[in-house]
Amino acid sequence: MNVRRHIPTAVLVGASVLGMLALSACSDSAGGRSDGKLNVTASFYPMEFLAKEIGKDHVQVTDLTKPGTEPHDLELSPRQIADLGESDAIVYLKGVQPAVDKAVQQSGVEHTVDAASLTELKKHGAEVDGHDHTTGDNGTGHDAGEHGHEGHDHGHESDDNDPHLWLDPVKLAQVAKGVGKTLADADPAHQADYARNTDDLVKKLTDLDKKFRDGLKNKKSDTFITTHAAFGYLAERYGLTEEAINGIDPESGDVSGSRMKELQKLAKDHHVNTVFFETLTSPAMARTLAKDLGVKTDVLDPIEGITEKSRGRNYVQVMESNLAALQKALGAR
Questions:
Q1: Cβ distance 170 to 130 under 8 Å?
Q2: CB–CB of 121/163 below 8 Å?
Q3: Which of 4, 37, 75, 330 qualifies as a cystine partner to 60, CB 3.0-4.6 A?
Q4: CA distance 189 to 231
Q5: Cβ–Cβ under 8 Å, residues 245 and 255
């Protein structure tokens, strides 16, 4: 005889609910996971870097963007969207990945931080002139651009804010502080550790900023050409001029003949000897322009993801490789 058939349904349901509550309580008491770690979802690599550097052993970080995937093109699976809603905290950058922006908005997760809300963003075009920008802040965390010393955009301006803030170490340090506060709010038991890790990361980024300021101080040229207009904030920070073949979107389509002629003239006038391309998109356009100009190509990495092709294992190392590439191209060493 099947004894279970005689157990009232209400009792079975009640036992099931109690079991689920017990598991939930066990999970909640450990910061959202049975292993005691905070479950953090990051939208793409720069946000993953922040979460891991600040959270360290207290967090389990899931990156929505797999290495080698162009972040701008990301589409989320139903499973990813469901998992996102189970996060204890979300770290993302609004304006980079529309699919992520929508999913985060619908997730209902309380502890969510948008990096774009933690620093000043600007509208950048295919040309960003940083010559009138007061570079750096000597580690104070104050953005010189917020005090009226801004670089200039010329033509081909984007209708949206440029989201590539992480390529300016000073701006990324500002974002780090906000991420640290969010993780501490989500996991108060480890608040002191998050604060200490945030301070350590800000120091790393401040040191990186100093390396760029010192490394680009004495240069023969100040203009660089790249396929993707990702380096506007970097150009502003260090008094450079970025000339991009494409706009903010790396796959923004064909480039007009007039723009190519414009770049050819700029390259000759400013003694440009390198056209930069990046690791996650095709180098064909950069190579075509470089061939026309009789110059070489090299990599300037927007650090949207780390792969085996990356010139470094983490954000700081790849930024240092970017600095070396810029120094070489601009005659700074």
A1: no
A2: yes
A3: 37
A4: 38
A5: yes
Phi, psi dihedral angles at 21 (to 5 degrees): -65, -40
* 215 phi, psi to nearest 5 deg: -70, -20
Query: Tell me, what's the pLDDT at 254?
Result: 59
Helix (H, G, I), strand (E, B) or coil at 325: helix
In 3D space, the residue among 304, 333, 297 whose CA is nearest the CA of residue 318 turns out to be 304
Spatial CB neighbours of 217, under 8 Å, sequence gap ≥ 6: 332
Measured distance CA(179)–CA(117) in Å, rounded: 11
| Joined tokens for residue 329 | 């191209």
Would you say 111 and 163 are in contact if contact means Cβ atoms under 8 Å apart?
Answer: no
Token representation of residue 304: 């949207």
Whole-number pLDDT of residue 256: 66
Q: Ramachandran region of residue 141, left (φ > 0), alpha (ψ -120 to 50) or beta?
A: left
C-alpha 92: how far from chain center = 9
Q: How many other β-carbons are positioned within 10 Å of the β-carbon of residue 42?
A: 26
- Which pLDDT score, from 0 to 100, does residue 295 have? 87
**Cα 241 from Cα 151, distance rounded (Å):** 9
Average pLDDT per run of 10 along the chain, which is 333 residues long?
39 39 40 75 98 98 93 93 97 96 97 98 90 46 39 53 97 98 98 98 98 95 90 97 74 64 84 86 81 89 94 97 97 84
The whole-angstrom separation of Cα 320 and Cα 306 is 14
**pLDDT tens profile 216-257:** 999 999 999 998 889 999 999 999 999 988 765 555 555 667
Write down the residue that tokens 């529309």 correspond to.
98
Q: How many helices (H) and strands (E) are present in the chain, helices listed first?
A: 10, 10
